[in-house]
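Dear colleague,

Thank you for sharing your sequence with our group. We've completed the structure prediction you requested, and as agreed, I am returning the results in plain text so they can be pasted directly into your records. Please verify that the sequence below matches your submission; if there's any discrepancy, let me know and we will rerun it promptly.
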Amino acid sequence: SSGIHAEYGSSGINAEYGQGASSFVPVMALDAKPGERVLDMCAAPGGKSAYIAALMKNTGMLVSNDASKDRTKALSANLHRLGVHNAVVCNYDGLAFPKVMGSFDRVLLDAPCSGTGVVSKDASVKQSKDEDEILKIAEAQKRLLLAAIDSCDHTSKTGGVIVYSTCSVMVQENEWVVDYALKRRNVKLVPLGVDIGKDGFTRINKYRFDPSVALTKRYYPHTHNMDGFFVAKFQKLSNTIKTPKEVFHSDGESDEDMMVEEEEGN
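Please find the predicted structure tokens below.
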């Protein structure tokens, strides 16, 4: 895609990989450090993982995972071509984490999505995704985000950071998913550390979100001259799991505003 040709020579990664802003902004927000344990949960084809490895100066351990066995071939090939040697490529469903591996300093979840932010490249998205399908995708994203949070070590001295991103402009895949995680895990949203982008919605149409959701960032083709995408950055505070209790108001609408906190079993 258009945008930047990342050159990683100072990190011992001696090649170029052209990528758009939707690929490098989430990695900038993740801000991986040398020597850390980092999980890239949906990593193929490898552009983000290569950039993460460069920021880590090819040290520590980067787990580059993808649920598609076919896509891990391109992932392995790209990391090999770019000279990345601190990465382990694996092929798990993202929901397998943290059971297969956990206690990461940082986790990037660039979630599978509707692709509504890249209509300029694939106009068929406008016809191929209806509301039911968007909601189905959002449910999968919610489960993946909770798995990403559970895979992160809140006691990390350098991290405890989770970044969630999509190449979608749909509220249901972005702010709604982030708000869902805030209600169920002991995490807080923090600034991305990237100056560009429009603040995430805290209210739109029928949706009302936690005020801190304004710390997320949206990017639009017509405003920023790049793909449409969304990025949120969490700091994990503890392993506490929140269990929302449904409260029904007199108007019949439900509001998940009561919490019972339980300690995580593992």
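Summary note from our side: Confidence is low (pLDDT under 50) at residues 1-10, 246-266.

Kind regards,
the structure core
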